[in-house]
Amino acid sequence: MLGKILLRYMRRYRWLLLGVLVFQFASAMAALYLPRLNADIIDQGVARADTGYIWSHGMLMLAVSLGQIVASVIATYFAARAAMSTGRDIRADVFQRVNSFSEREVSQFGAGSLITRNTNDVQQVQMLAMMGATMFVTAPLLAIGGIIMAVQTDLGLSWLIAVSVPVLLVVAVLIIGRMVPLFRLNQRKLDAVNRIMREQLTGVRVVRAFVRERIEEERFRGANTDIMIVGRKIGSLFVLLFPLFMLILNVTVVAVIWFGGIEVNNGTVEIGTLFAFMQYIGQIMMGVIMSSFMAMMIPRAAVSAERIGEVLDAPTSMTRPADGVTDFPAPGAVAFDDVEFTYPGAEAPVLSGISFGAQPGETVAIIGSTGSGKTTLVSLIPRLFDVTGGAVYVGGTDVREADVEALWKSIGLVPQRPFLFTGTVASNLRYGREDATDEELWKALEIAQGRDFVEEMPDGLESRIAQGGTNVSGGQRQRLAIARAIVHQPQVLVFDDSFSALDLTTDARLRQALWRELPEVTKIVVAQRVSTITDADRIVVLEDGAMVGVGTHEELLETCSTYREIVESQLGVDA
């Protein structure tokens, strides 16, 4: 999966990668040439007191060093550009893929895990791309080229390479092999920390209301300790790895000095050649260490790439036809045809045998006891979920055959828990339609019974809204969410228990304004209060996921015992 993802994204920047290869090759060749120059200066210049030779070859050595630095800087720049662009592209694709998910897939992965996959996991792959592009040529050239140059410099000491390099590789394989499962475990522990943190921030009011701060602190402390323990194990392996590398390198250098000193003493090797051999040994070891460092990063990046691939390749229940219908024959019409829906893993459907319709301009209300499936039912209209049986039609077209963008444009949804984004009142309302004028925003607020409190805000439409709308009351948040849906100018308005936080007077004024100002818009209203739906054109009564009645308020009082019980419990027997 790691290779597939890197190939898929980095091939877009092949010209940058070609530049990386060229300049890394030049840098490595310069690095391999420098010890030979250094040996010549010592043997031919210093040993013979030839100042001119020292100056001429010293300047050449300086020029080669500068060339190496320039080539290395350019290669690193190209590698950074390619790697950062790759990370950006992966994040964008993961984000777009998550946006295509239905609620089913989001629940399957979990919001915390999806956030981790698009941040930390992408960063791991991005870092490997960066280090890989930087070391891809340098590490093997230093290792292999260093071996060749060392053998050419002094064949008699080459046996030290045959001993030290395999030992270095064995140490790397043993330690890195133990890191692989720890990297996988670390990502799962990170998911858990993110999930708990997100839950505590989102549910902070519930935590405080039930005095659960200490318990939640312990819960977070446990998850935090778990990831600390795993991280400590990984860190201990890192701490062990590099000292072992340096020990092997230093022992090898000491051996070179010891055995090389004997050769120098015997007159078979010159001092400059011995110094060059030592430098080549260092380059060989550096190449092996760089390769080992890459090998350490690969398992962690592979785990992250696998998790990213799970998101990118996850089948979504919300299919998007390539040539989806964009022109609906009957704008605003909504129909449920023998609809059934079952949650993944559930033994029984939560909705079954649902059939009713709403014509353009009509108001259809849905009522039922808690858990009867009301929210699930209206979630099928904008395809937050897809039916598992039957069909839902909007504008005469099966929503699964419609172009998703066209479908969403025709529907305005006010969810059960309205959410506002960080910004201003205006930016939140224009989330429904970016080109809406201030006059249209005020009109929508007037219909939603929100104009009064927005006018009282310090900056009116430009007043700040905190994330989630936490700086406004629940009723104000609901009215702003309703106004946002109105600004959207949809053909179908879906209210999922959107009047529950409003007092009865505001509720009544809001409904009258909606019916009066938006007479051609189809309205689907989920409600708990009977007073909210008594004037609906039709009322659908749900019980245990099935329709037990449909009709007007008066008709249902006579024909539906479930509806009559709801009315009597709220309005009294004489209602």
From TrEMBL:
Domain ABC transporter, first and last residues per copy: 334-569
Regions that span the bilayer: 54-80, 127-151, 157-180, 237-260, 280-298
Matching CDD domains: ABC_6TM_Tm287_like
PROSITE patterns cross-referenced by the UniProt entry: ABC_TM1F (PS50929), ABC_TRANSPORTER_1 (PS00211), ABC_TRANSPORTER_2 (PS50893)
Keyword annotations from UniProtKB, A to Z: ATP-binding, Membrane, Nucleotide-binding, Transmembrane, Transmembrane helix
All residue ranges annotated as the ABC transmembrane type-1 domain in the record: 18-300
Location of the protein in the cell: Cell membrane
Entry-linked Pfam families: ABC_membrane, ABC_tran
Membrane topology category: Multi-pass membrane protein
MF-aspect GO terms: ATP binding
Matching InterPro entries: AAA+_ATPase (IPR003593), ABC1_TM_dom (IPR011527), ABC1_TM_sf (IPR036640), ABC_transporter-like_ATP-bd (IPR003439), ABC_transporter-like_CS (IPR017871), P-loop_NTPase (IPR027417), Type_1_exporter (IPR039421)
Main location: membrane
PANTHER family cross-referenced by the UniProt entry: ATP-BINDING CASSETTE SUB-FAMILY B MEMBER 10, MITOCHONDRIAL, ATP-DEPENDENT PERMEASE MDL1, MITOCHONDRIAL
Protein name: ABC transporter ATP-binding protein
Species in which this protein is naturally found: Microbacterium istanbulense
Organism placement in taxonomy: Bacteria, Bacillati, Actinomycetota, Actinomycetes, Micrococcales
